[in-house]
């Protein structure tokens, strides 16, 4: 069988792709302004998966990330708005330490708090400059009666994505007081669809992204096997495994897209059945979306790469055991190495607590 | 048509900084510090609009010029949720015409139907007006351009549930399924409507739905959505409980076979095994698993083999007696720590 497509993995191109993402982007990326910290996460975690973090200045990066923390003001009147910003778009003067500056519209964003903490972690930071109490107060203020979360205290849409962000934040800070786990679990259960996948909310179409968010959140909470019966788990396994066409799609009868190799692949891994997928077809698809010139990956072949698909394409390959790539923790979505750093940090926190009491 | 940007230098108008009605305001630049990361290279025009936006924000100014500027900022970046929030604050503070705002947001969504902020904004305006009367038609138009737009379906479900607009939704779903029987979003909506109205408990309704599925399967057999729907409405009652269905499926297997049909068969056999474990039924299930693994769904070969092994271990001669699943608290504790 003739092979027209090239399926070799161009590691160095991807390193350069992420390096460039971290520098200057053209104006056509302006819609990413408020989410720049997530782009930083994709690039940094991508470099981590490529075992290439040495190419960046970690200390400078850490300072910049800390400048995005919304810290409590002197009178702590803004505790419920604390967390991390996506960027400096509000216009506060640059500051990487406290106290917080009062501003009528300055608040954290749940996805930025999540990616901010994860980025600090993978850079080897010890989170000692994170005001954990403020972050958790800010997080708690975002949870709704139905168990789901807003992204910002001013209000926004609410769905499974932000439950996942909340679970990651609590997991990293080793403190679940930031959320009502029981309510979140109920929201997850209500989002299970008749077809055994999980939607963004009750009644909504099941989707690979929300299925990952739900299952990964339950795993991080330590409640996966207690919330879902073995039969329910089998049904979710079946729904997920049916998403493979060549690569994976996110919903039945939709086209495949590189990022679902992670969203669905990681879910299958969390459910112990990723081993039963077709590795060759998945790998071939992901590599067919590789941009051989500028690096990175796109959702489809012959399309423009972007940091999100570049990152999740790599994670998809990592799940497949691609040599040269670091292993990724399928629930927390950081390298195993970053995960181990977190475990050490948390052990030290616990040791500190017990030596004080 | 929406008003044009006020500061298009190319068309001869001036930047905001050149206009005297803004001269009292000191623009506020973005400050990324000494080592900016993922810096976006904005044009002068873009910077101009947002530097003034930041100044208004800082002072929490509630004025007509602020309101006008939010439209310019939105045109440059409709994903900036802070601009949208500020616009909503102004809509209320200045008691703006919400009907006009509906016209505005309609146009923006038509241009950018996959943006989260614009749909959230529309929802807020509809709530303030307590008027959903334009929604179903508007969403139908968006869906006519992309029949699977998740935001559109989400907004539609919210409107229908909030304002109890169930009456013509099943008809809408059927129209979409006639256009594309493989539209999974439409099948999902079918389940949404029926489960919230008649429900599936009435045997007449359940049978109507089963017949509808079988009809759609005959027309387009290779369609995961219809099989998922059929399984979904029956699985909690027991797949093997609907009289005559297994026979119909076995008939379809001859002429309209698909991996989904065969998976449905395996699941039906497993359901039967739960109440009446016989070697004969187990063998039938194993045969279908083998057919899937070797011929009909080879991409999932390893999974179907795994499923075959699971069935054997659960229902075969060496199976342990059925018991409640042991709790895995120990594993959970380990996960938490």
Automatic annotation (TrEMBL), chain A:
Question: What EC number(s) does the entry state?
Answer: 2.5.1.59
Look up keyword NADP and say if it applies.
no
The protein's required cofactors = Zn(2+); Mg(2+)
Family annotation (SUPFAM superfamilies): Terpenoid cyclases/Protein prenyltransferases (SSF48239)
Q: Which InterPro entries match?
A: GGTase_I_beta, PGGT1B-like, Prenyltrans, Terpenoid_cyclase/PrenylTrfase
Q: Which CDD domains match?
A: GGTase-I (cd02895)
What are this entry's molecular-function GO terms? Answer: CAAX-protein geranylgeranyltransferase activity; metal ion binding
Q: Which domain of life is it from?
A: Eukaryota
The main enzyme category here is transferase
The Prenyltransferase alpha-alpha toroid domain covers which part of the protein?
A: 9-334
Q: What's in the keyword line of the UniProt record?
A: Magnesium, Metal-binding, Prenyltransferase, Repeat, Transferase, Zinc
Pfam families, from UniProt?
A: Prenyltrans (PF00432)
Quote the cellular component terms of the Gene Ontology held in the record.
CAAX-protein geranylgeranyltransferase complex
Recorded family membership: Belongs to the protein prenyltransferase subunit beta family.
Give the protein's recorded name.
Geranylgeranyl transferase type-1 subunit beta
Which organism is the protein's source?
Gadus morhua (Atlantic cod)
Organismal lineage:
Eukaryota, Metazoa, Chordata, Craniata, Vertebrata
From TrEMBL, chain B:
Q: InterPro entries, per this entry?
A: Prenyl_trans_a
Q: Which domain of life is it from?
A: Eukaryota
| Alphabetical UniProt keywords | Magnesium, Prenyltransferase, Repeat, Transferase
Q: Which GO terms describe its molecular function?
A: CAAX-protein geranylgeranyltransferase activity; protein farnesyltransferase activity
Q: Where is the composition biased (Low complexity)?
A: 319-337
Instruction: Tell me the segments the record calls region Disordered.
Output: 314-337
Cellular component terms (Gene Ontology): CAAX-protein geranylgeranyltransferase complex; protein farnesyltransferase complex
Name assigned to this protein: Protein farnesyltransferase/geranylgeranyltransferase type-1 subunit alpha
The organism is: Gadus morhua
């Amino acid at each position: 069988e003739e092979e027209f497509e090239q399926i070799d993995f161009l590691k160095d191109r991807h390193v350069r792709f992420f390096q460039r993402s971290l520098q200057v982007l053209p104006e056509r990326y302006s819609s990413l302004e408020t989410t720049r910290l997530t782009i930083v996460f994709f690039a940094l975690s991508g470099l981590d998966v490529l075992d290439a973090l040495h190419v960046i200045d970690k200390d400078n990066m850490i300072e910049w990330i800390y400048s995005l923390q919304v810290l409590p003001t002197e009178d702590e009147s803004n505790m419920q708005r604390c967390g991390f910003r996506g960027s400096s778009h509000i216009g506060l003067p640059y500051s990487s330490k406290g106290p917080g500056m009062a501003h009528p519209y300055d608040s954290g964003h749940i996805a930025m708090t999540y990616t901010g903490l994860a980025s600090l972690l993978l850079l080897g930071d010890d989170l000692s400059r994170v005001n954990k109490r403020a972050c958790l107060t800010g997080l708690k203020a975002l949870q709704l009666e139905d168990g789901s979360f807003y992204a910002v205290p001013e209000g926004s849409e609410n769905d499974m994505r932000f439950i996942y962000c909340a679970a990651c934040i609590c997991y990293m800070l080793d403190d679940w007081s930031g959320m009502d786990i029981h309510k979140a679990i109920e929201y997850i259960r209500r989002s299970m669809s008749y077809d055994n996948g999980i939607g963004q909310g009750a009644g909504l179409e099941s989707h690979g992204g929300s299925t990952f968010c739900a299952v990964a959140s339950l795993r991080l909470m330590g409640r996966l096997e207690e919330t879902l019966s073995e039969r329910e788990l089998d049904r979710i396994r079946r729904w997920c495994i049916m998403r493979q066409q060549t690569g994976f799609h996110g919903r039945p009868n939709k086209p495949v897209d590189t990022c679902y190799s992670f969203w669905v692949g990681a879910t299958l891994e969390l459910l112990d059945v990723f081993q039963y997928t077709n590795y060759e077809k998945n790998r071939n698809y992901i590599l067919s979306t590789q941009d051989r010139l500028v690096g990175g990956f796109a959702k489809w072949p012959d399309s423009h790469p972007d940091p999100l698909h570049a990152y999740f394409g790599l994670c998809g390959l990592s799940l497949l055991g691609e040599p040269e790539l670091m292993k990724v923790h399928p629930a927390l979505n950081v390298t195993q190495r970053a995960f181990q750093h977190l475990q050490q940090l948390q052990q030290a926190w616990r040791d500190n607590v017990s030596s004080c009491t | 048509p929406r008003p044009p940007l006020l500061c298009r230098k190319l068309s001869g108008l001036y930047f905001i900084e050149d206009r005297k009605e803004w001269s009292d305001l000191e623009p506020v630049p973005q400050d990324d510090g000494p080592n900016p990361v993922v810096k976006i290279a904005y044009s002068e025009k873009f910077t101009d609009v947002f530097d003034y936006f930041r100044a208004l924000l800082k002072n929490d100014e509630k004025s007509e010029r602020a309101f006008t500027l939010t439209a310019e900022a939105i045109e440059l970046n409709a994903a900036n949720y802070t601009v949208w929030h500020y616009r909503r604050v102004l809509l209320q503070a200045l008691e703006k015409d919400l009907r006009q705002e509906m016209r505005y947001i309609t146009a923006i969504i038509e241009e950018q139907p996959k943006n989260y902020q614009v749909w959230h904004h529309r929802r807020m305006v509809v709530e303030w007006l307590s008027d959903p009367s334009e929604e179903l038609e508007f969403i139908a138009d968006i869906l006519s351009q992309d029949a699977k737009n998740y935001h559109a379906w989400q907004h539609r479900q919210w409107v229908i549930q909030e304002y109890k607009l169930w009456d013509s939704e099943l008809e809408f779903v059927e129209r979409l399924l006639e256009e594309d029987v493989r539209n999974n979003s439409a099948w999902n909506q079918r389940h949404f409507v029926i489960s919230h109205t008649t429900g599936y408990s009435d045997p007449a309704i359940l049978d109507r739905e089963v017949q509808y599925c079988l009809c759609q399967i005959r027309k387009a057999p290779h369609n995961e959505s219809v099989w998922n729907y059929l399984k979904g409405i029956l699985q909690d009652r027991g797949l093997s409980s609907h009289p005559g269905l297994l026979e119909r499926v076995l008939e379809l297997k001859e002429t309209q076979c698909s991996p989904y049909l065969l998976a449905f068969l395996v699941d039906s056999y497993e359901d039967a095994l739960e109440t009446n474990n016989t070697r004969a039924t187990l063998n039938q299930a194993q045969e279908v698993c083998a057919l899937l693994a070797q011929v009909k769904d080879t991409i999932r070969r390893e999974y179907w083999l795994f499923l075959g092994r699971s069935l054997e271990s659960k229902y075969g001669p060496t199976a342990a007696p059925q018991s409640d699943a042991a709790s895995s608290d120990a594993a959970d504790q380990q996960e938490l720590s």
